[in-house]
Design goal:
Elements lengths: L10 E2 L4 E7 L9 E5 L5 E5 H5 L8 H4 L13 H12 L18 H4 L1 H10 L8 E5 L11 E5 H11 L5 E3 L4 E7 L2 E8 L2 H14 L14
Antiparallel strand pairs: 1-2, 2-3, 3-4, 5-6, 7-8, 8-9
């Protein structure tokens, strides 16, 4: 039986679903269950394997919105649009701190799913192998002229370049805070946003009376 070692607020699967905690199995089943938070902000329980394998893509909100989107829920860009809207406008969504929480929005035109699909598919290299959608200016909005299809390497570099905090590094899912002092590095845990990471770093510096500079936090909810 597979063992899953997730930390609270880890993103599981490909649909921005947040892990919260394990919950008891049903009727002593060998299939492990957990409490998750959907990209729409709702918390619900699901089998862990279903989230990892992307069999379960949401708490059910995608199905509920099927009529509204006139059958477009099966389109490959539907979940991208849904997640984009959630992280920019749903304050209960965990990614909101990195997007809507610091002023990033979706243009009125691209709020419409059909307009979004038409524009994204018109961009160069659309659906190219290994490519995903990225904002050219990582501090800019989701709007025409600021979106492109790029590799994950380019996307990661773009995000890393926008992080100007000292002692904060980006992993696939989190930001790691660290302090180096007297040739020894202290790792201060994983954090969902660079702001949370630098806040933990500032606290460590103050509590241990270190000579490092306290950094100003640029964006915080």
């Amino acid at each position: 039986m597979a063992k899953y070692n997730f930390n609270k607020n880890d993103i599981v699967g490909d649909y921005n679903i947040i892990y919260i905690k394990n919950v008891p199995s049903i009727n002593n089943s060998i299939h492990k269950r957990a409490l998750f938070k959907c990209h729409c902000g709702k918390e619900w329980e699901s089998f862990i394997t279903n989230i990892i394998s992307n069999v379960t893509k949401s708490c059910g909100c995608i199905t509920k919105n099927r009529l509204i989107t006139h059958g477009l829920t099966t389109h490959p860009l539907y979940i991208k649009h849904h997640s984009m809207m959630s992280r920019c406008f749903n304050s209960e969504s965990k990614p909101y701190l990195r997007y809507g929480g610091r002023g990033i929005i979706v243009s009125d035109e691209l709020k419409n799913l059909q307009n979004y699909i038409t524009y994204i598919e018109s961009l160069p290299n659309a659906y190219g192998k290994g490519l995903s959608i990225d904002r050219i200016n990582n501090n800019g909005n989701y709007e025409k002229g600021n979106l492109r299809w790029v590799t994950k390497v380019t996307q990661a570099f773009n995000r890393e370049r926008s992080n100007t905090y000292v002692g904060v590094s980006k992993t696939n899912l989190n930001y790691i805070a660290y302090v180096t002092f007297n040739n020894k590095t202290f790792y201060l845990g994983k954090h969902l946003t660079p702001e949370q990471a630098v806040k933990a770093r500032n606290k460590f510096i103050i509590e241990n009376n270190l000579p490092h500079k306290i950094q100003q936090i640029k964006y915080e909810k």
